[in-house]
Amino acid sequence: MNSDLDLKTYLQTLKTGVAVADVDTWSIIFENAKFFHWFTPTGAEDDEDGLTGRLSGLKADRARSRLANGRPFSFETEVRSGARNVSLSVEMRQESVDGQEFLLVECQDISKQKEAEYMLDSYSRMAEKNARELQREKDRVEKLLLNIMPQSVYQEMKDFGTTTPQRFDAASVLMLDFVGFTSMAISRDPSALVAELNDIFSAFDRIVELFDCERIKTIGDAYVAVSGLPETNADHASNIARVALRMRRYLEKRNASNPNEWTCRIGVTTGPVIGSLVGIQKYVYDIFGPAVNLAARLEAISEPMQITVSVETAKVIEDDFILTDRGEFDLKGFGAINVFALEREARGPR
């Protein structure tokens, strides 16, 4: 049996495209059916038997350079096969047979590999997209939670799944309420009312943050802030007093240039406070204790645009602030106590 004939017959049955070419001219000496099918001659005379015209995607100069250095040259290309495109991996290398040099070209169908890589890449991109969306949702939830509880409380809940109520022996509480809120002319326009209230409370939030205080909550037109918790602060009384003065100053400036006048009453006191996260499905960080109740009583007896402070607060801040003695008031749950009006800082603007 003719061995050359047997080899050619074998090569024709391969699913791999094979071609043998002259090492110098790159003219094709032999090609099997698969190679011919993938790289059908274009019809041009100079391309009929040459690799340069037949192999789509071949960078001939680069291939010659590598082959001249005794190294194989590989590249990937895509050809049309019937109604679909086929991805091919092509390797060119020099081989010696009986002392004669030939150029061997082998082509492998890597379409399934490419499809798998494409699917993997698609899944990877989808996973990255989902991860980004999950991170955005996590950031949104974290931002919402930080709007209803202090940073340290949120961190404790995230780390341990729960929070422990804490007692703070030295804290100062501010309670602010607006005078005649329900009878204001703007109250007949709910959208405008909420827009202005949101504008004012946003300004209050910035003032509170400026002095390391914490806004606890808003209840309708009431605003509650605290200093000295959940992070202890030796200057809690002075800080909350500065917040109260700047809130009043902000409203005075706003009223001077706004058709709707907002008038507030503010109560401030100092004493033990308990802070805790309450609720199971709807979390709320709240504060409890006599100091909270007293701040509400002091706010109620304040005159419009007046800041009323307890004697406990007055004793702490009297060296740095101007206070006016308002005398004794009989407050529910506290009896007769002496209260003061906070006028301004001893040094600085009124």
Q: How does this structure look, described?
A:
With 350 residues, the protein is α+β, with helices and mostly antiparallel strands. The protein folds into two domains: 3-109, PAS domain (Beta-Lactamase); 159-345, Nucleotide cyclase, GGDEF domain (Alpha-Beta Plaits). Helix content is 39%, strand content 33%. The protein has ten helices and 13 strands. The strands form two sheets. Strands 6, 7, 8, 9, 10, 11, 12 and 13 form an eight-stranded mixed beta sheet that branches. It has a five-stranded antiparallel beta sheet with strand order 2-1-5-4-3, sandwiched between helices. The longest helix has 38 residues, at 111-148. The model has no long low-confidence stretch (mean pLDDT 85).
Structure at a glance:
By secondary structure, the protein is of the alpha+beta class. It has 10 helices and 13 strands. The termini are far apart.
At the third CATH level, what is the topology name of the largest domain? Alpha-Beta Plaits
The residue ranges in which pLDDT falls below 50 over 5 or more consecutive positions are none
Major sheet: size, sense and barrel closure? 8 strands, mixed
Overall spatial form: rod-shaped
The CATH class designation of the largest domain is: Alpha Beta
Number of domains: 2
Structural class: alpha+beta
Report the strand count.
Answer: 13
Give, in order, the helices and strands.
HEEHHHEEEHHEHEEHEEHEHEE
Please give the CATH architecture of the largest domain.
Answer: 2-Layer Sandwich
State the share of residues found in helices, binned by percent.
25-40%
